[in-house]
Amino acid sequence: MDTGQQYRNKSKSPLASNWLLLGLLLAFLAAGVVTVWLTYSAVKDLVSSWNIANPPSLSLETAPDEAAALPADLGVEGETPLQTAGGPPPVPWDGNSRINVLVMGLDSREAEQDDIPRTDTMILFSLDPESRTAGMLSIPRDLWVEIPGFDYSKINTAYRLGEVYNVAERGPGLSLRTVENLLGMEIDYYAMVDFLAFENFIDELGGIKIVVPAPIVVDPLGKGNTKALEPGEQVLPGYLALAYARSRNSSGSDFDRAGRQQQVIMAIRDKILSAELLPTLISKSPALYQSLSSGISSNLTLMQLVRLAWIAQQIPEENIRRGVIGVDQVDFAFSYDGQDILRPLPDEIRKLRDEIFTLTGPPAPLAPQADQQALVDEEYATVLVLNGTFSPGLASQTAEYLQASGISTAEPGNANETYQETTLIDYTGNPHTVEKIVALMGISPENVYHRYDVTGQADVVVIAGEDWASDNPMQ
Fold first, then answer.
1. How many CB atoms lie within 10 A of CB 218?
2. pTM for this one?
3. Each residue's pLDDT tens digit, 107-153
4. Residue 168: left if φ>0, alpha if ψ -120 to 50, beta else—which one?
5. How far is residue 410 CA from its own chain's centroid?
6. Which of 183-197, 243-257, 283-297 ranks highest by mean pLDDT?
7. Are 409 and 441 a contacting pair, CB within 8 Å?
8. Would strands 121-128 and 99-106 be described as parallel, antiparallel, or unpaired?
9. 12 pLDDT more than 70
10. Of 4, 110, 148, 473, which residue has the fewest beta carbons closer than 10 angstroms?
11. Alpha-carbon gap, residue 160 to 175, rounded angstroms
């Protein structure tokens, strides 16, 4: 079994938990006009003056050209970001230009006591009010990237590092900068959601109706509460809906789980948009808002959220593009300490970015479109050549050959054992250098490894094997 297949079998799918958080986000946006605006008004003692059966300008059937009915001002509270001090500052948004929001999911209950959790989920949400289109890109937690100001690590550690070391704009800001560097696009806003809010939200809705297709065992957080769900239609409370969406206890493992998460999303959407629930949403707007706001932190203001929700509920499902950074955008690898990681392929990731977020052109350029040598030079990679054969001088000759081809090499040496096939190990993530060496030396892709270790004596190690000794252009 190859490394990639082993990883897929034992690690979380890139969709794991992402669709769950997406469901919460969409639920918040779809109901936002009702829950947020009505709640704000209730707080300001204005609801009593409305006709509750037909509140002004809040119909979910509002046409796009009626968006002007939104209030222009919500006062001081409306301009206050929904976050504690120290996070990314609020950025003005006119409600008409494209908006990018990094949505992150935390499950603080899974963290050790007094510990700061890592992000369980990352989704970049982009919405264009003019074209009434939106896109969502899921970012896997095991993506191995450079964290600004730190070193290479899994992308889900950015939030925790920012909080632990109290960097500028804290964990949310460091997460934003990390994803900006990965995708090559500006992201001004974030929204942080705790999954407990998801449970509470569903409970306030009275549960959601789910058709369980086959027997499944779910395991809600906590000990001794495993539950078997039988096939058929049933109403699940929040904790069971969360456990059902996250369960891997089925033959399809992560792929089945992704399907269940989409099923939960549709169940939330169906319930929110059902006509019979509208009076409940109105009457429970304070509780619903409290359920969500207690578990949400964002540098978006209340007014911006209202505008965002107002526009989002007008976007038809077919105008929402969805994507996942998956097997076509990553290489499967191991970190220096043996962790399963996903090594990003920058150009492939940014192609996917453009497919999801643009209609006529990319929001930012792909990775630098220079010639290969310029890209190699930008990586500043040092290559160590080792002789894995009994052919004297092979490492020195190979190093000179690579140098003449524009590769920076260190002092060559001898391997600890003989190699029949030439092998390359990339320790610090240098895709363009690796690509060039593989082409120059005809190295098989099966003999190219990624084992991240920034403490080594070289960025890339090439071990010349018997195949190279017997057939190379230096002869």
1. 23
2. 0.63
3. 665 555 557 888 877 888 888 888 888 888 888 888 899 899 888 89
4. beta
5. 37
6. 183-197
7. no
8. antiparallel
9. no
10. 473
11. 9
Please say if the pLDDT value at position 2 is more than 50: no
Place of tokens 């109105």: 282
Alpha-helical (H) ranges within 148-283 are 158-164, 170-183, 195-204, 238-246, 253-273, 278-283
400/71: higher pLDDT: 400
CA 68 to chain centre: 33
Domain 3-357, CATH 2.130.10.10 — does that match? no
Mean pLDDT (the chain, rounded): 75
Copy the structure tokens of residue 428. 């610090």
Amino acid letter for position 380: Y
Half-sphere exposure at residue 423, Cβ-oriented, CA atoms within 13 angstroms: 15
Asked whether the beta carbons of 136 and 320 are under 8 A apart, the reply is: yes
3-class secondary structure, 80:
coil
Residue type, 360: T
Residue-wise pLDDT for 311-357, tens only, equals: 776 777 788 887 788 778 888 788 777 788 888 888 889 889 988 88
Edge-to-edge strands, sheet with 133-139: 296-298, 189-194, 99-106, 121-128, 133-139, 320-324
Copy the structure tokens of residue 121.
């989920």
Q: What is the rounded distance in angstroms from the CA atom of residue 127 to the CA atom of residue 373?
A: 37
The pLDDT of residue 16 is: 35
- Please answer whether residues 265 and 19 qualify as being in contact, where contact means their C-beta atoms are separated by less than 8 angstroms: yes
The set of residues, in sequence order, having a beta carbon less than 8 Å from that of 61 and lying 6+ positions away, is: none
The domain ranges of the chain are 3-357, 372-470
